[in-house]
Structure formats: C-alpha cells, structure tokens
Amino acid sequence: MISLTDTQKIGMGLTGFGVFFLFFGMILFFDKALLAIGNVLFVAGLAFVIGLERTFRFFFQKHKMKATGFFLGGVFVVLVGWPLIGMIFEIYGFFLLFRGFFPVVVGFIRRVPVLGSLLNLPGIRSVSNRVFSIMFVNH
Fold it and tell me: Where is the chain membrane-spanning (predicted)?
C-alpha cells in the first residue's frame, strides 16, 4: 500500500473533483462555470499531489513548452468564456503533456483481468500496438 501525506490526500481529492467537474461540464454542453471550476481544481490538485516545485518543473520543461502553452492557454480561454475552443486547446495540450504516460497506462490495462483479455485479443492487439507505436513512440 502506498502511504500518502495529508497534503497528497487533499490533492487527490481536488484532482478527482476537478476531473468530475470537467466531465460534468462537458456532459452539460460545455458549461463554462463547471469547466472553469474543474480546471482550477485539477491544476490545484496536481500541485498538491506532486508539490509546487515539481509541478512547475513538469510544466515548464523546455521540450514541453508547446504542450504547456496549449494546456494553460486552454484553461485561460475557458476562464475567459469560450469553453468549446478552450477545451479543444486543453485536450490537445493534455495529450502532448502526458503522451509519455499513455504506453504505461496501456501496459497496466493489459494486466487487468477483464480489460487485459479484451486488449490482448488478436485483432485488437495488433491495432492497438500499431496505433500506440505511431502516436507515442515516434515522438
């Protein structure tokens, strides 16, 4: 079992609520208030979980500046009041920021009993391997 500090527990809660508000805001036709709350909670939760210094180091690495610009620019555009355009920017920035983690997540999902058996079916496995090698390995 992983032990978490109280600050990290608060961060996990904030991040979870942020994801919930973002999802709920998209379900309700891109409600800008819910998306803005979700963005603030998600970024604050991330800072609580990994710490302020590591958060800044993660977002402001030289090779991640484009991704950070799209993600934080999308947050700003949502806060200004254009939720659809802001979410498009955010999703693109999120994809660029966290694309290094996606192969790890797929590897983990392949070890989960029910989902792993689905991803390891012959047709699905070859397609997923090809898609992930094109999207994540070549960058």
Answer: 12-30, 36-56, 68-85
Cα Rg for the chain, rounded, in angstroms? Answer: 17
Query: Residues 70, 98: contact at Cβ < 8 Å?
Result: no
Which among 126, 104, 108, 128 has a CA at the least distance from the CA of 116?
108
Is residue 74 within 8 Å of 86, Cβ to Cβ? yes
- DSSP, collapsed to helix, strand or coil, labels residue 135 as helix
CB burial class (10 A; 0-12, 13-18, 19+) of residue 76? middle
Q: How far is 119 from 106, CA to CA, in rounded Å?
A: 9
**Local structure of 115: helix, strand or coil:** helix
- Residue 48 structure tokens: 């609580």
Per residue in 47-106, pLDDT (tens digit) is: 999 999 999 999 999 999 999 999 999 999 999 999 999 999 999 999 999 888 877 777
